Amino acid sequence: MTATTLIIVIPTVLLIYSFRYTCLRILRAQTPRDYAPGLAAANGLKYPGIQGRLLQEVSAAELTALQKSLDADYVLLTYLLKHTAGFEDGGIAVEQRILMLDFKVIRLFFALARRLAVPQARAALAEMSSILEHLADAMGKRVQRSLRPRHQTGG
Fold first, then answer.
1. Longest C-alpha distance within the chain, in Å?
2. 100 Cβ contact list (under 8 Å, min separation 6)
3. Residue 21 and residue 16: Cα distance in Å, rounded?
4. 94-113 and 118-147 helices cross at what angle (nearest 10)?
5. Helix 2-28 and helix 118-147: axis angle, to 10°?
6. How far apart, in whole angstroms, are the C-alpha atoms of residue 130 and residue 134?
7. Residue 150: left (phi > 0), alpha (psi -120 to 50), or beta?
C-alpha cells in the first residue's frame, strides 16, 4: 500500500513542480521589445493599474474586485489570441496555453486564499496580472507582424 501511494504521490508532486517552474520561467523571460503597454492601452485593459495597486495595501474586499477586473482582461486577451490565430502559423503557442492553464489554476488558489491569507491572495493576483502582461505582449507581437508589408514575388 505504501509503495503504491509513493508511486502516485512522487510523480504528481514532480509534475506540479515542473509545471510551476515552467510557468515562472516563461514569465521571467525578457523580450527585446515590450508590446504589452501599447496593446493594454489600445484595448482598455486594466491589469497595468492593478499591478500598481497590488504594491499598496489592499483589503480582502478590494482583492475580489481586482480579481474580477483581471478575469475580464483574461477573457478579452484570450478571445483576441484565439481569433487572430490566422496571423501566426500554428495558432496559440504552447507557452501561451501553459500560461492560460496557470491563470485558471491560480484563480482557484485565489478563491481559497482571499479570505484566509491576504498576502498569498495578493501574490496570486500579481502573478495573474503578469500572465496577462505576457499574453498582451504576445498579442502585440502578432499585431506588429501583421502590419509588416509583405514582399511580393512576381514572375
1. 72
2. 78, 92, 131, 135
3. 9
4. 160
5. 50
6. 6
7. beta
Determine the Cα–Cα distance for residues 90 and 92; give it in Å rounded to an integer. 7
CA neighbours closer than 13 Å in the CB half-sphere of residue 58: 26
Joined grid coordinates for residue 10: 512522487
In which element (H, E) is residue 96 found?
helix 94-113
pLDDT of residue 30: 78
CB 137 within 8 A of CB 31: yes
112 located within any domain? yes
Q: How many CB atoms lie within 10 A of CB 88?
A: 15
The predicted model scores a pTM of 0.85
For the chain, what is the domain count?
A: 1
Q: Which of 45, 5, 62, 67 is nearest to 137 (CA)?
A: 45
Predicted confidence (pLDDT) per residue in 5-59, tens digit: 888 888 988 988 899 999 889 888 877 888 899 999 999 999 999 999 998 888 8
Name the nearest CA neighbour of 121 among 33, 39, 71, 54. 54
Domain presence at residue 154 = no
Q: What are phi and psi of 91, to 5 degrees?
A: 75, -140
Q: Is residue 153 part of a domain?
A: no
Residues of the domain holding 9:
2-147
